[in-house]
Amino acid sequence: MTRNLILGGALSALVVLAALISFLWTPYDHAVMNIPAKLQTPNAQHWLGTDHFGRDLMSMIMVGARTSIAVALVAVGIGMGVGVPLGLTAAARKGSWLDEVIMRGNDLVFAFPSLVIAILITAVLGAGAINAIIAIGIFNIPVFARITRSAALSLWEREFILAARVSGKGAARISAEHILPNVTNLLIVQGTIQFSLGILAEAGLSYVGLGAQPPTPSWGRMLADAQTMVSFAPHLALVPGCAIIVTVLGLNLLGDGLRDHLDPKLRVART
Length: 271
What we know:
Structural class: mainly alpha
Number of domains: 1
Largest sheet: none
Radius of gyration: 22 Å
CATH class: Mainly Alpha
Helix content: over 70%
Order of helices and strands: HHHHHHHHHH
Distance between the termini: 13 Å
């Protein structure tokens, strides 16, 4: 295993572990306000300090982790669940009107920045975690469709696919039995990358008030709440900011390490 894979896996596991533990235990109730203890810097009672309402930041970070992970995970699942079949279909029908419709639809989505699309969708449907999932998931669809189509097109020219066609298998069966298994590694790596982008997108939407709503903690909204208090309570911004950085860094390193580990060409180059 590469160093990136080990480090990325460790950082990602740390965030996931914090999210899982939060279902069973947090140092304090993340929703309980304690005004006399507000704006405390990290100390023995509150390891990461408290916010302007006296809420424990460590508890909020732990609960916020499960919010970010849930939104990003479901959004990536939507992208893969819809985008991969579209990409396989477009590759199998290369040059047809169906291929053209699918790819032009992808181009239409890619014409706008992802965060702008997410803001537009959540502004129309309303703020909330569910609508944030829908918004991020919609943008993930063309990403996976393009990746799948590009990888599948090169496979359709291979000899084992020709043998499958000669044996009488249809395009749908070939795509499911031969094409999809051979692009799975690529999809896993891309899924990891999109997962990290989903974390950022969720934080961005929450920052502008369109993500998870109170009292559910969100790293992005914690940053938004801290922006007017940075001068005298910088830990309010540093704590959620570091949580986002660690999570995205870990997932990117994990994706890079998975690419190196799963790509046979890169394995040969290292040996």
